[in-house]
User: What shape does this take?
Amino acid sequence: MHKFHEVTTQLEQALSGISYENLDISDEVKEQVELVLAQFRRAKVRVDAHDVELYEDLLSIYNKSNDAAADPDVLRRLAKKLQLSGISELMQESLALHEMVSASGGDPEETFEKMSNLLKEIKDFVQTENPKLNAHTIEKNLPPGGSGQATTDINHKTLVIPDDFRCPISLELMKDPVIVSTGQTYERSCIEKWLEQGHGTCPKTQQKLSSTVLTPNYVLRSLIAQWCEANGIEPPKRPSSSRPSKTTSACTPAERTKIQILLCKLTSSNPEDQRMAAGEIRLLAKRNADNRVAIAEAGAIPLLVSLLSTPDSRTQEHAVTALLNLSICEENKGSIISSGAVPGIVQVLKKGSMEARENSAATLFSLSVVDENKVTIGASGAIPPLVTLLSEGTQRGKKDAATALFNLCIYQGNKGKAVRAGVVPTLMRLLTEPGGGMVDEAMAILAVLASHPEGKSAIGAADAVPVLVDVIGSGSPRNRENAAAVLVHLCAGDQQHLAEAQELGVMGPLVDLAQNGTDRGKRKAAQLLERMSRFIEQQKLAQAQADAQSHLSQSQTQQPQPQSVANPVDS
Assistant: This one.
């Protein structure tokens, strides 16, 4: 602000020194210059108190540490003065910020981070103060059959989206997260718009992009879906317009000819030719995206599906692994499903070699990232053999089975199937195995299942409370969060689990989690602490009533009885 007034003074002095009579300018231009000069003179002698307040408010938020809470009154003034009262205005401001950083040509990392955080603070405040801004989104995301009360509850308690789930450009919850060449993740539509405007840098880091290829971030998408479910809303659907247009392969004619020769061998009556061709296609599909597109375009997918039922275990392994590699391409997922591959993949998962079973599980995970495929795969009988692989597979097999089960159980209809297949006892064993290396995966699946009635019942019957209390006390931040989420479901309407957790000393770890955990972990810990406090008060009240009743009974027992007077007997 002070610099602005300095510049204003300098411009006023410069214009005041102009000798108009020595310049060949028209009267109209002279009037314009005099008008501007008059404005500068007025500005020089007047300091707007509102401008000073705006400057000080901006500076206080801009310079605050990440841990410090922002003053709501300051945020309210900023939102009003900067006219950032709606989501569209905030998004436009965010895009403009990225444009400015891109054009700066310097190293604006710290400045950009602070300005981005300032926008985020304002956005969070605006959404909290005006929950109806996102009413249409909330209503759309409510579970089917949700009551009007549920809508009210959600509208009055705006969820705080974790920073990792927000697009750095739009600051919104990501629906279709993709990774750019620098490793940063963005919402697909936002980064596509950025690239279409001719930018060749990463918006967040300002590093030059070595490629404009956008890779779907399936892991983050699954985490977002889990977070949405844990907070009672449906996972965001990817807009159909964001899906990439049909890709064409850049393979040379010679490479396409080679693929055609291999396809002919797939249909050969010679088992060795089939095995060799399936192995070659497996390697080609692994090598690059162009190969994956070209192999699918050549018609390989139905031929590979037919080989899933071959008695030759090696050919079967090559075929399912080739389908896994082809499924990395987004467009190929639909072709694999429509070719009827799922029953064959499930059969390999049940009876194939260990490597084939592992790759079958990985294929089901890859296909299940498309929401509608979760239903198809769950209905195909895939969940019981995945649970079996989770229990008895190699370390890699357990990991593949766990990721597939986690993704499939995001769909509510698959949770009961997983519970009935015996997944809960297996998960509890994985949680307590010394050096098993499966705690993260097991805890994440339990957190998804706990929201289902059958899942809650099975977890409670598996004597899970001591394990959950231990994880809350000494687990990783994500595992502590998930353990608290499971315990919240178990303790809902069940004082037995509350009493058990209290006796195991959960209060201390919960207090620590409420102060130092993740955002979701803090919320879950706060819920549990509130229930624990109510439970302890009820215990004290019940004990006081019992003591009073006991004291009353003792008093009545100790009262002296009236003595009877014997009639004198004549001697």
User: Anything to note?
Assistant: Residues 519-558 form the longest helix (40 residues). The two ends are 122 Å apart (CA to CA).
